[in-house]
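FORM 7B: Structural annotation worksheet

SECTION A. Query
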Amino acid sequence: MKIYEATDKKKFLPLLLLADEQESMIDRYIDDGVMFVLDDNGVKGGIVVCEISDGLLEIKNLAVYKDFQRRGYGRVLIDYVCERYKDRYSVIRVGTGDSPLTVPFYEKCGFVKSHTVKNFFTDNYDRPIIENGVKLVDMIYLERKLR
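SECTION B. Predicted structure
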């Protein structure tokens, strides 16, 4: 297994769309973000992180191909960026929908709920976003200390 920095991030658009279903939303952060790809006998997933402010790093996209989900690849990517950036940032955060799958996943990875942005998904996406049968409305932010 290897993790490398992607130079042609748009090449991975089909992967990124698994975690963020609207390309125009990906376009908001893709150029400013750093993308890492996990290759384990083929690409399994990727993560995009952006500096938000001094000391704060944000996961903008974390995606694992459906056939490889629930095998630990997402956690490996999170742990990789946490280790890589621990000397440069004090906190990493992630924003996600209030999904019964996603929020518990991040909590298991050491994140705790920070704050909520009301109506984020209804205000910013051109169609309803449904995850595991739940219509996403609010953005839930979670944080993890890096040091």
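SECTION C. Observations
Residues 18 and 63 are 6 Å apart (CA to CA). The mean pLDDT is 96.

SECTION D. Sign-off
Analyst initials: ____
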